[in-house]
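Is this the right way to post structure tokens for a design question? Let me know if I should format differently. Anyway, here goes:
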């Protein structure tokens, strides 16, 4: 994997989610969303901060579900 010498910022809006209702979500779907969204962004921040220039930033942004939540049922 090629790694940059340094970057000004690390930004991610990446994520994964099912669009079934929350009531129909099973443990497998919940775990996939949790691992992908929280751990994926956490791991990117851990890796990215090692390559930040002084004064650089890490930004983790929410996706579509912050504006259009899953239906409860």
């Amino acid at each position: 994997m090629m790694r940059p010498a340094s970057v000004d910022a690390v930004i991610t809006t990446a994520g994964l989610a099912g669009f079934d209702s929350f009531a129909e979500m099973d443990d497998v779907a919940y775990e996939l969303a949790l691992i992908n969204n929280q751990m994926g962004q956490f791991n990117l921040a851990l890796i990215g901060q090692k390559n930040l220039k002084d004064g650089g930033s890490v930004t983790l942004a929410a996706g579509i579900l912050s504006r259009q939540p899953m239906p409860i049922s």
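Format looks fine. Someone answered above. Worth noting: The chain has a mean pLDDT of 80. Helices lie at 27-49.
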